[in-house]
Amino acid sequence: MNDGANRKPARDPQDLARLLVSREKAGDAEGMAALYEPDAVLVIGGGQLARGRDTIGEFYARLIAAGQRFELGDQRPAIVNGGLALTSTRLPDGSVTVEIARRQDDGTWLWVIDQPSILG
């Protein structure tokens, strides 16, 4: 488990996916959840949503415990409009992730909506 000392914030919306994967590899579910706004929504499959940072962290902790491993894919350039950004990545299995990030008051970025897998 990571103690948070190495948790750098996302200074660009393009940083979020890389940080998510690196924190997953470190077994840091709490750090993964820290990449989301407190009231963010994550699609977790089966038509279900994880709502809120705590619930998202619990979901990621279960994935890590089950041995889930994330891989970096082909990240597409973020589409930024003011304080919002659309991020997406084509994963090695052909599925696509789609996320909406928001610029925070301190200039960092956090996801507010995450759809981690849309079949390609």
Description of the molecule:
The protein has about 120 residues and is of the alpha+beta class. The chain has a single domain, classed as Roll (Nuclear Transport Factor 2, Chain: A), CATH 3.10.450.50. The protein is about 25% helix and about 40% strand. The protein contains 3 helices and 6 strands, in the order H-H-E-E-H-E-E-E-E. The chain has helices at about 15-25, 30-35, 55-65; strands at about 35-45, 50, 75-80, 85-90, 95-105, 110-120. A 6-stranded mixed sheet has the order 2-1-6-5-4-3. Strand 5 (about 95-105) and strand 6 form a beta hairpin. It starts with 14 loop residues before the first helix and ends with a strand.
Gap from first CA to last CA:
33 Å
Strand content: 35-45%
Q: Could you name the ranges where pLDDT drops below 50 across 5 or more consecutive residues?
A: none
Instruction: Round the Cα radius of gyration to an integer and report it.
Output: 13 Å
CATH class: Alpha Beta
By CATH, the topology is Nuclear Transport Factor 2, Chain: A
Output the number of helix runs: 3
Q: What is the CATH architecture term?
A: Roll
User: Structural class of the secondary elements?
Assistant: alpha+beta
* Helical coverage, percent range: 10-25%
